[in-house]
Amino acid sequence: MVRRKHQPERTCIGCREVKHKRELIRVVRTPEGGVIVDPTGKANGRGAYVCKSDGCWQKSLSRGQLARALKLTLSQEEMVMLESLLKAELSKI
Ligand SMILES: [Zn+2]
Q1: Ion ligand 1 residue ranges (Cβ < 5 Å)
Q2: Domain ranges of the chain
Q3: What is the reported pLDDT for 87?
Q4: 55 C-alpha to center of ligand 1: Å?
Q5: 16 conformational bin, left if phi > 0, alpha if psi -120 to 50, beta if neither
Q6: Phi-psi region of 53 (alpha: psi -120 to 50; beta: other; left: phi over 0)
Q7: pLDDT of residue 35
Q8: pLDDT per residue over 29-82, tens digit each?
């Protein structure tokens, strides 16, 4: 018997394409109001998903889509911090 795995799908906030969760990176607004990259997809808080692609990240950060999706304002420091975290994530692929 073949058990089909449920594959949750999410929309990338950069390109608006619907993809499988594992093709995306989750960013979470923590209950404390901070922002973290969540490679496990299990962190608590409001999450947004972006493709594992540099282009989508640049778009979602520079156009403020990430901040809007998470309903928060990103400071310059947080943007820089996120970019470096994401670069680290992307380099693992
Ligand atoms: Zn995308």
Answers
A1: 12, 14-15, 51, 56
A2: 9-91
A3: 87
A4: 8
A5: left
A6: beta
A7: 92
A8: 999 889 999 988 889 999 999 999 989 999 999 999 999 999 999 999 999 999
Ligand 1 centroid to Cα of residue 11, in Å, is 8
Closest CA to 70 of 32, 28, 41, 42: 28
Phi (first) and psi of residue 46, to 5 degrees = -75, 130
> 59 alpha carbon to ligand 1 midpoint, in Å?
9
Which CATH fold topology does 9-91 show? Hypothetical Cytosolic Protein; Chain: A; (3.30.1230)
Between the CA of 54 and the centroid of ligand 1 the distance, in Å, is 9
Interval 1-17: pLDDT, tens:
666 667 789 999 999 99
CA of 76 to the centre of ligand 1 (A): 22
